[in-house]
Specification:
This protein is an alpha+beta fold. The chain has one domain: Glutamine Phosphoribosylpyrophosphate, subunit 1, domain 1 (4-Layer Sandwich), CATH 3.60.20. The protein is 15% helix and 41% strand. A seven-stranded antiparallel sheet has the order 3-4-5-6-7-8-9. It is globular, with a radius of gyration of 16 Å. It starts with 5 loop residues before the first helix and ends with a strand.
Amino acid sequence: MGINNLADLLSQTSYPGRGIVIGKSANGEYAVTAYFIMGRSTNSRNRVFTETPDGIKTEAFDPSLLTDPHLIIYSPVRMLGTDTIVTNGDQTDTIYEMMSAGKTFEEALRTREFEDDAPNYTPRISGIMHVVNGKFSYEMSILKSDDGNPASCERFTYQYLAPVNGEGRYIHTYMGDGSPLPSFTGEPEKVQIDDNIAVFSKMVWNNLNSDNKVSLFVKYIEIATGKSETVIFNKNG
């Protein structure tokens, strides 16, 4: 698998949906994640990311325009000890609660399936970053329908136990726009990761479709110390 330019992947489609990037900075100092949301409807576009004590949540930018909170209001990012959980739905809480009870990331996701938004059956994409004692590893997952068949859930988990400097993986919900929306296929895509959070976050934000992008969260964790820095972009506000 060759390494891709993330800016190219983002700019080549108008609607990748929701996306997660996890990887290691080129200088080897940072564990990096990015999570973005996009929207085509007024309800989906009427959102912002706001900080919480252990991560972020989505909120309605204009509460009067919120018509259905189902599947759009959730906590995309939560910290569990030194782990960072990143997902595109309320499975964040499932992972947090079950791992708190001694289960694994994969075991938690076995209790969930793709979203119930027929006919798209949007995949649930998830990631977890382990940064402890100066070491970094991560896992990613996708739960998707079998080519739109709601009776069949396909489950894929990917482990990256020795991340390479300057490389990450990018997974997103859709392969592009359409009706119904085509689910992501294949392995998470290998992408380049920059050393600088400001440069990286602006690159991601600027290459998302200007009409459909809604919010972006980026986090850089210093692997040696566990100290972190975050950036949030919201189109609204």
